[in-house]
Amino acid sequence: GNVGTIRSLSIPAGGLFASVTIFGAGHFADTDKPQEVYKMLDLFYNGDML
Fold first, then answer.
1. Which residues contact 14 (CB under 8 A, 6 or more apart)?
2. What radius of gyration, in Å, describes the C-alpha atoms of the chain?
3. Is 31 exposed, middle or buried (CB count within 10 Å of its CB: 0-12, 13-18, 19+)?
4. What pLDDT sits at residue 43?
5. Is the dihedral of CA 37, 50, 45, 11 positive or negative?
6. Is the pLDDT of residue 1 over 50?
7. How far is residue 46 from each of residues 15, 31, 39, 43, measured CA to CA in Å?
8. Out of the domains of life, which is the source (predicted)?
9. How far from the centroid of its chain's Cα atoms is residue 38's Cα?
10. What does the CA dihedral 7, 10, 12, 14 come to, rounded to 10 degrees?
């Protein structure tokens, strides 16, 4: 899915931000827990998912 696609890319921070934003928007649309989106963003920026 989207997560695998994003994780497989080696792209500059600007591109990562755009990809995470797109993923976050899609995830947000599928959940009633927006804090999960922010947690996901935090994981990306901390490198825990990469």
1. none
2. 10
3. exposed
4. 75
5. negative
6. no
7. 16, 23, 10, 5
8. Eukaryota
9. 9
10. -30
Q: Spell out the SS3 assignment of the chain.
A: CHHHHHHHCCCCHHHHHHHHHHHHHHHHHCCCCHHHHHHHHHHHHHCCCC
The position carrying tokens 């696609």 is 5
Give the position of tokens 């890319």.
9
Residue length, the chain?
A: 50
**Count of Cβ atoms closer than 10 Å to residue 41 Cβ:** 16
What gap in Å lies between CA 47 and CA 33, rounded to an integer?
22
- pLDDT tens across 2-50, in order? 555 555 455 555 565 666 665 555 554 555 566 776 777 777 777 655 5
Which amino acid makes up residue 14?
A: G
